[in-house]
Design a protein that fits this description.
alpha/beta, Rossmann fold, Arc Repressor Mutant, subunit A, five-stranded parallel β-sheet, 9 helices, binds calcium ion
Length: about 240
């Protein structure tokens, strides 16, 4: 499965309806009954998109959305908010909730899936294509396979997430703390040197066939996916 959607809804019937239709549409689905449970799940394994009911016991959907927007790791997490009536949707649009789109209950499952896809396309254009490429590197998001040329590269879940993040943002330098945030998730109990160790393993896997190194180390800062500097002498004759 490619895209992971977290449904935050306290009504079991609506939650089941959403989960059923999203799974049928090919999404990987997780469920939370309230805002607190949602926050815990997001910290554990950040989803690609959140479907968030406005009316929740305890922490409201709006408050949860605002909290997520304030945290760097979830500031850009796409959110589709569910509202009870059209008037409420219009009122919510006026508030700055941070949601990317609103769907009014009762909704048609087909419409909801279409909205989810549209929000994903806007938020993460790379997902629409389902294949990320850079130089001779290719990541198929649907099958979760990575290739360098014709060679398939086996990666752990974390290495895959790290590479995916770099592939979605080529040439951009990320500090280790940023990578920690975006790849390992909120408040993960992981040290900065874990990032270095994972980069090391990723590099080893990517360059196992003796290919040029596409992961650039920016000393004292972090890492970027980049084309290597031209070598002073070719390593092998063409
Ligand atoms: Ca509700």
């Amino acid at each position: 499965m490619t895209v992971r959607v977290l449904i935050v809804e306290d009504e079991p019937a609506v939650r089941r309806l959403l989960a059923y239709n999203l799974e049928a549409a090919g999404f990987e689905v997780a469920e939370a009954r309230d805002g607190e449970e949602a926050l815990r799940q997001i910290e554990e394994l950040p989803p690609d998109l959140l479907i968030l009911d406005w009316m929740l016991p305890g922490l409201s959907g709006i408050e949860l959305c605002r909290r997520l927007r304030r945290r760097p790791a979830t500031a850009a997490l796409p959110v589709v908010m569910l509202t009870a009536r059209v008037e409420e949707r219009d009122r919510l649009r006026g508030l700055d909730t941070g949601a990317d789109d609103y769907v009014t209950k009762p909704f048609s499952p087909a419409e909801l899936v279409a909205r989810v896809r549209a929000v994903l396309r806007r938020a993460r254009p790379a997902m629409a294509g389902e294949v990320l490429t850079f130089a001779d590197l290719r990541m198929d998001l649907a099958s979760r396979r990575v290739f360098r040329g014709n060679r398939e590269i086996p990666l752990s879940r974390t290495e895959f997430r790290l590479l995916r993040h770099l592939l979605e943002n080529p040439h951009r330098v990320f500090e280790r703390a940023q990578l920690l945030d975006r790849v390992w998730g909120l408040d993960a109990d992981v040290e900065l040197r874990t990032v270095d160790a994972t980069i090391r393993r990723l590099r080893r896997a990517l360059n196992a066939g003796g290919e040029p190194d596409l992961v650039r180390t920016v000393r004292g800062t972090g890492y970027a996916l980049d084309l290597p500097e031209p070598a002073p002498e070719p390593l092998s004759a063409p």
